[in-house]
Amino acid sequence: MKKLLILGGGTAGSMAANKLRRKLATNEWEITVVDADDNHRYQPGYLFIPFGTYKPTQVTKSRRKALNKDVPLVYGEIDQVLPEENAVLLTDGRRFDYDVLIIASGVSPRPDQTDGMMGEEWGKSVFEFYTYDGSVALSKALEKFDGGKLVINIVEMPIKCPVAPLEFAFLADSYFKDRGIRDKVEMTYVTPLPGAFTKPIAAEAFGNTLEEKGIAVEPDYMLMEVDNEKKALVSYDEREVPFDLLVTIPLNMGAEFVARSGLGNEINLVPVDKFTQQSKAYDNIFALGDANDIPASKAGSVAHFEIDIFVENFMQYIAGKPLSHRFDGHANCFIETGEGKAMLIDFNYDYEPLPGKYPVAGVGPMSLLKQTRINHMGKLAFRWMYWNVLVPGRPMPVPALMSTSGKRTDLIESK
């Protein structure tokens, strides 16, 4: 019997396992998933926990229950992949051989990679919301925050859900208004990018949104250290940004076992063909979701669209055929803008976010690059879709490849 081993039971790993289990004969292929624990987290929900929109219990379910009953789930820490031996070692000494390996171990925030970030102010005035524990801790800190300098800082790209820091800024603006203390809070958005929105058409449509909300922007900011004594960010060009409460998005890195296995780049992402997600080093290894280095957003939508294409390529691979299906980098993201509204962007490798309607051209009901109530409702409704449609691997009512139908492509042509 052939063996497919999947490292990681999160979004990408669970979807791949569930979709492939339906495709592959159970008497020909054994599919096994390895992960450290049984807690499958709905990571987009971390954004809402600090503001009380979601309770912590609403973002966690059992990994085991999220997987097809015919897919074994092994609990354990991964030590190393031995690609020359087609084997994986766990830290407890267990060994798993494979014919095909899928790495779907995601990325994690690494505050330890920035000088001073985990100093004496960590957990006191320095917080993050990209982990379950971090979002819960930040919710308590926000409750106690009665005014002062709130700084939101992205250390370096790429990060999971690149729009989440912006969403946090917008939601914080609404949160403080609801508490009646917005005039007591000085908010600054600190980014290594040239601006809050880097795609020209999106920047033209929403480039002044932060300014309208009274949120200052500190662009092109490469963080060198967090000065705990001064309670300030310090950049390599010696710009200092003081804070009373720092909400940081630390450097995101892939799993350490990827580095130990010699399969990753400088931030432990697996180099792959951006169209097929096949490892550039070993043709029987694929990396899916956030674990790979494709030039697309590290978002759940990318994992969903990518895996729809990957499954077709996987079937060709095991049949000894060329991989003919090409993922186009398709991503779409709801961006919470506060006050019960959100905007929606849809883009891929070749097209930046454009105005239009989604998912049906000319009909919607979602509007692209517009702040609407229905987009906000769509963002909240996605949690149900995630657990009941996306993770189980059921068909979604949107195409995997991005469509330009109904989008204002003339805006690009006119530039």
Descriptive overview:
The protein has ten helices and 24 strands. By secondary structure, it is α/β, with parallel strands linked by helices. It has three domains: 2-53 and 60-106 and 255-318, FAD/NAD(P)-binding domain (3-Layer(bba) Sandwich); 111-251, 3-Layer(bba) Sandwich (FAD/NAD(P)-binding domain), CATH 3.50.50.60; 331-413, no CATH class. The strands form eight sheets. Strands 5-2-1-9-20 form a five-stranded parallel beta sheet, with helices on one face. The chain has a five-stranded parallel beta sheet with strand order 11-18-12-13-14. It has a three-stranded antiparallel beta sheet with strand order 6-7-8. Helix 1 packs parallel to helix 8. The model has no long low-confidence stretch (mean pLDDT 94).
Shape: globular
The biggest sheet amounts to: 5 strands, parallel
Quickly give the structural class: alpha/beta
Order of strands, main sheet, comes to: 5-2-1-9-20
C-alpha termini separation: 56 Å
Q: Supply the number of structural domains.
A: 3
Record field, number of beta strands: 24
Poorly predicted runs: none
Number of helices: 10
Evaluate the radius of gyration: 22 Å
Tell me which CATH architecture of the largest domain applies here: 3-Layer(bba) Sandwich
Beta strand %: 25-35%
Mean pLDDT: 94
Please tag this protein with its features.
single chain; 415 residues; FAD/NAD(P)-binding domain; five-stranded parallel β-sheet
Mind sketching the topology for me?
Blueprint: E1 2-7, H1 11-23, E2 29-35, E3 39-41, E4 60-62, H2 63-66, E5 73-75, E6 78-82, E7 87-90, E8 95-97, E9 100-103, E10 107-109, E11 126-127, H3 132-144, E12 148-154, H4 164-179, E13 185-190, H5 200-206, H6 209-212, E14 215-218, E15 223-227, E16 232-235, E17 240-242, E18 245-249, E19 252-254, H7 256-260, E20 285-287, H8 300-318, E21 331-338, E22 341-347, E23 356-360, E24 364-368, H9 373-390, H10 410-413
Parallel strand pairs: 1-2, 1-9, 2-5, 9-20, 11-18, 12-13, 12-18, 13-14
Antiparallel strand pairs: 3-4, 6-7, 7-8, 10-19, 15-16, 16-17, 21-22, 23-24
Helix pairs in contact: 1-8
